[in-house]
Amino acid sequence: MTWSAISWRWPNTTRPRGCGDPARCSSPRILSRTIPVRCPQIEVEVGEQLINAPMTEMRITHDLAEVHPSARAHVTIGIFDGVHRGHRRLLNRMITAAHTDGHIAAAITFDPHPANVLGYEPLPMLTTISERARLMDALGLDWLVVLPFTSEMAQTPAEEFVHSLIQHLHLAALWGGPDLAFGRDRQGDIPFLRRMGEERDFSVYVVEPVVWDGSTVNSSRIRAALAAGDVAQAAGCLGRPYRLTGTVVHGRGLGRRIGIPTANLELPPYRLVPCRGVYACWASLAGDIYPAVTNVGIRPTFAGQSLVTEVHLLDFEADLYGQRLALDFIARLRDERSFPTLNTLVEQIQADIAQSRTVLASLRSPE
After folding, report:
1. By CB distance 3.0 to 4.6 Å, which of 20, 179, 289, 334 could disulfide with 276?
2. Which CATH number fits domain 29-46+241-361: 3.40.640.10, 2.40.30.30, 3.20.20.80, 2.60.40.420?
3. Whole-angstrom Cα distance, residue 282 to residue 291?
């Protein structure tokens, strides 16, 4: 599936696999002496304002019949996982055109992901529904319709679905990429929609995908990059660093034992976690941003088996249990590996901290 298409007959896909193999720690009480970094440049690039900002004008519903538009609607349909640069090009053009004409702009998405309902291996997701909503809201979208995707919906003919858009949204225009196709047997492709538009008085607009670094930007490319630990490529496609948000939970307390406490993150189901390894990150907590080192892995030095995401905040001192913490992945520092002694592990972690400071220092705004 490409960046703008929603297919109700899910194509065969191969879920990207991870890589890598060091060990780290756990315990959310982090000690430091310096103050949090507040950097306007980072708040924009990292997406702090986009993801953490309160919802403003956009309305959200789970039922088309609950939408009572004040004007005709321009509509786009898709999963929009990641709300990456291709998604934003489509959404921005649709929103601008709709508002110029005095119309409203609406996006229709689905939850759960169609792959989960149609019997395919569940895809790891780049964003939750709430994160997608906040990113779309920041673009000026008027309505987000989150429809429950079921096996019955998968059998809905494209013509019937478009009729519901005409009835409930007073459809003025339908927007998508060149490979947009929805409905049973993917009947609702661009030629079909244009024929139907001529009959039912709505326009169809096609927006070409974004090409970055020689290849088309789409969610599958971002998933593959993250599965390989290439957070720089993922950020280039997203237009911002990849973000994971979770709740700090109790771990085994291993970090406290070696003097480098870490916070263990509990993540939403089906969230894509980058390849096992050590990363330089920006950590967002209650409106403040801190430099951080994050380990994704099983902690082989301690004979761990379960995958954990744990973060050491470099410039922070407080108890984090139960708090929401967001991580923006800036650079991959190294693979995860096992160490023969705790001393060599601690030495490597200190080296990781120093390297992370160097990487992140280049992103700080001038004092």
Report:
1. 20
2. 2.40.30.30
3. 5
Tokens of 7: 């297919």
Q: Which of 9-13, 32-36, 258-262 has the lowest mean pLDDT?
A: 32-36
What number is the average pLDDT over the span 283-289?
A: 90
- Mean residue pLDDT of the chain comes to 82
Cα angle, residue 41 at apex, residues 318 and 236 outer, rounded to 5°: 105
Omega of the bond leading into 268 within 30 degrees of 0 (cis): no
List 206's β-bridge partners, or say none. 176
- For tokens 């060091």, name the residue: 22
Distance of alpha carbon 354 from alpha carbon 110, whole angstroms: 43
CA 230 to chain centre: 15
Q: Tell whether omega for the bond before 340 is within 30 degrees of 0, i.e. cis.
A: no
How far is Cα 23 from Cα 304, in angstroms, rounded to an integer?
Answer: 8
Whether 336 is a known active-site residue: answer: no
Closest by alpha carbon to 265, among 242, 292, 244?
244
Q: Provide, rounded to the nearest whole percent, the portion of the chain with pLDDT above 70.
A: 79
Lowest mean pLDDT among 192-206, 227-241, 270-284, 353-367: 353-367
User: Whose CA is closest to 205, among 88, 91, 67, 84?
Assistant: 91
Place of tokens 């939408």: 67
Q: How many CB atoms lie within 10 A of CB 296?
A: 26
H or E segment to which residue 49 belongs: helix 48-52
**Domain layout of the chain by residue ranges:** 29-46+241-361, 52-209
pLDDT of 18 reads 35
156, amino acid identity: T
Task: Please state the separation of Cα 260 from the chain's center in Å.
Answer: 29
What is the phi-psi region of residue 211: left when phi exceeds 0, alpha when psi lies from -120 to 50, beta otherwise? beta
Provide the whole-model pTM: 0.82
Of the residues 159, 310, 317, 367, only one is catalytic, namely 310
